[in-house]
Specification:
Number of domains: 1
Largest sheet: none
Shape: globular
Helix content: over 70%
Number of strands: 0
Radius of gyration: 19 Å
Number of helices: 14
Strand content: under 5%
CATH topology: Na+/H+ antiporter like fold
CATH class: Mainly Alpha
Length: 310
Amino acid sequence: MGAVISGFVTIWLVIAVGWVLAHLRVFDEHAQITMSRLSFFVGSPALLFSMLSTTDLRRLFAENLVVSVIAVAGSLALWLVLARTVLRLDAGSTIIGGFGSCYINAANLGIPIATYVLHDASWVAPILLVQVSVLQPAGLALLDSLAAKDRGLTSSWRSYASMPFRNPMTIGTLLGLAVNLLGIRVPAVITDPLGLLGALAVPTMLLAFGISLRLGPLPGRGPGLAPSLVASGLKLVVQPLIAWAVGRALGLPPATEFAVVVVAGLPAAQNIFVNAVRYQRAVVLARDVVFLTTVASIPSIMVIAALVHH
C-alpha cells in the first residue's frame, strides 16, 4: 500500500504548493489560467505523444477493454439522463460533469495504484487509450462547438467533424498512436525535448488546481453541490459496480475481473479541471468532482480490493 499512499501524497503536496503560493499572493487567477493553458496547449500534448508512441498496445484489444468501455458508457449514460432531467444543467456543465462521471485518472494515480494493487501498471493502458483517443476528442469537440456558438460563429458539419483534429491534445494522441502502430523510431533530438515539455503537464495542472482551491469557494460550498455529488458518486460507486457486474456476466478470470473493477474505481482525472478552465465551463463543478473523488478514492479502492479480490 506504500506506493498507493505515496502517489496520493505526491499529488496533494504539489496541489498544496499551488494553494500556498495563491495564499501568499504569488499567483492569482491569471496565473491559474496561464498554467492551465500551458498544460493544455504544450505539456499534455507532448506527454500524450511520448506515452502513446512507446506504450504496449497489445492490451488495447484484450477482453478487459470491453468491460471498461461498458462501465464508462454506463456511468456516462446515467449522468446524461440525470443532468438533463433531474439536475437540468446547461450544455457546458453537462459535458464537464460527464467527464467527471467516467473519466479516470489513469496516469499519475492509475499507474502507482495498478502497480501495487494489480502488480502490473499496464492494466491502465487500455482505458487510457480509449479516453485520449475517443472520449476526450469527442468531449473537446463539443466544447469547441459551444465556444464557437458563444462567439457567434457558425460551422459546417465538416468544420465540426474536423474539430478534434485541430485540438492540441487530440493531435498529440493521434500522432503518438500513428508512430506506435507504424513502428516509426523517433530520434532522440525530438523525443528528448518532448519529454521535457511533457513533464510540464501534471505539475502545471496540479498547481492550477491548488490555486483554484485557495481563490475559489471551498469544495462543497460553491453553487451546484448536487451535480458534484452526483458525478462523484457515479465515478466512484456506479462505474466500478458496472465493471464488476459485466465482468462477472462475461465470466472474466478472477484476476482480470479484479483489475477492471479497481481501474474503474480510480478518481476523476485532473485534466477535466484543465479543460473546464480552458473553455470557462463549469470550473467549480470540475474542481469539486476532482477533489471529492481524489480524496474519497483512497478508502473506496481499499473497499473494492477487499470485496472483489479473490
